[in-house]
Design a protein that fits this description.
By secondary structure, this protein is of the alpha/beta class. 28% of the residues lie in helices and 26% in strands. This is NADH dehydrogenase. It holds the Pfam family Pyr_redox_2.
């Protein structure tokens, strides 16, 4: 009877966990271990691009890739983890409940946007999932049928972090495409920080400020949204901004499934893991991607919730789960290099290196790099066995 490595999740962490495990099994000539991926759909959803238009295209099918690498796919949504029984309960089509057993489990169920409980939050859009981003896109495309008004022409983005900035700087061009080049469009970012782009650090902030000014994006600083209604938002300083389009971008947490695994968690719900990405206190459970609280180096830095870290975390988690099952040496996770590439709309982008975000490229040169990252580097490998397995080598540097 075959032993089973179960990977829950088909995001960046899950896909690369499965491929890395398959790579090691191939290298070891092992044929008695089955790799199974459990996820709602056999596709990698390119979440870092959900702020863009044509969001329905931001996904890549995984069936052929899994087929050529010997990975079994099970369609379903994980509901409950039973660490003692070493099995995962899931819901398949038509609400059918079933179980999958495992010898080693890799939890890679990502993170999700946690909406505030403020009054009227149901009126806000977001770009957390394809379905939500598609809903926003349809709304923006329909604005041209609305009567001309300040509320129609104004978009309020709640949150001045990475997602909020990339979303906001994408919008002026999209709004003009719908409302006309002569339309007076207004994009506002509401942020609790005291300075523009403060959440991303002093080195990157000037580029954010310049790009915002060039595109007419206004920042409402030292403020937060306290209420939303169909016609606008109320801010903590008492201001009311008329808007038919409010986008929520703050409050990400690890998948709630992490709460079902005994172990220590950080304030974002991520499970503490050791150098092999095994959940501390668990012999058979590994974590990858946004559910892992993992040290990237010996300087106190921890992996961010990003595809940059999720890919490498997946390569190590899958490899080490397979290595533990086969009794061969593991490969400790280390990712000391850290980069940031922030899209700033038509103005360009800004690329930085290091945890202190030292600026290396700005403007259109940085945007060319951002396009390469988003359209090439973060996509899964082609469905050819040798190259796909080779790409899952945990020794490959990411960033």
């Amino acid at each position: 009877m075959k032993r089973n490595i179960l990977v829950v999740g088909a995001g960046f962490g899950g896909v690369w966990s499965a491929l890395s495990a398959a790579r090691l099994l191939d290298l070891q000539g092992s044929s008695d271990v089955q790799i199974t991926v459990l996820a709602p759909q056999a596709e990698l959803r390119i979440r870092p691009r959900f702020y863009e238009s044509n969001v329905h295209e931001m996904k890549a099918s995984l069936l052929e890739l899994f087929d050529v690498t010997g990975v079994r796919f099970v369609e379903g949504t994980a509901d409950r983890i039973d660490p003692q029984g070493k099995r995962v309960e899931y819901t398949a089509g038509r609400g059918v409940h079933s179980w999958l057993s495992y010898d080693k489990l890799v939890l890679a169920t990502g993170s999700q946007l946690i909406r505030s409980n403020i009054t009227g939050i149901e009126h806000a859009f977001d770009v957390d999932e394809i379905e939500a981003a598609t809903c926003l896109e349809k709304h923006i495309n329909a604005l041209g049928s609305y009567s001309d008004s300040e509320a129609r022409n104004t978009v309020v983005v709640c949150g001045g972090g990475f997602t909020g900035i990339e979303t906001a700087t994408e919008l002026p061009k999209r709004l003009r495409a719908v409302l006309g080049d002569d339309a007076k469009v207004n994009v506002l970012i509401v942020d609790r920080g005291a300075e523009i782009g403060a959440a991303l650090g002093k080195h990157i902030s000037p580029s954010i400020a310049e790009a915002s000014a060039a595109q007419g994006i206004e920042w409402c600083l030292n403020a937060s949204v306290t209420a939303i209604d169909p016609d606008g938002v109320t801010l903590s300083d008492g201001r009311y901004i008329a808007s038919k389009t409010v986008i929520w971008t703050v409050g990400f947490r690890a998948s709630p499934l992490t709460a079902q695994v005994p172990g220590e968690r950080d304030p974002l719900g991520r499970l503490h893991v050791d150098a092999n990405l095994k959940v501390i206190g668990q012999d058979d459970i590994y974590a990858a991607g946004d559910v892992a609280f993992a040290a990237t180096d010996d300087q106190g830095h921890v992996a961010a919730m990003s595809c940059q870290h999720a890919i490498s975390l997946g390569r190590h988690a899958g490899n080490n789960a397979a290595a533990a099952l086969l009794g061969v040496p593991t490969t400790g996770y280390s990712q000391p290099k850290y980069v940031t590439c922030l899209d700033l709309g038509e103005w360009g982008a800004v690329y930085t290196e290091g945890w202190d975000r030292q600026v290396k490229l700005v403007g259109q040169e940085a945007r060319t790099l951002k396009h390469t990252i988003n359209s090439v580097w973060i996509y899964p490998p082609v469905a050819e066995r040798a190259s796909a397995l080779s790409a899952a080598d945990p020794s490959i540097p990411v960033a």
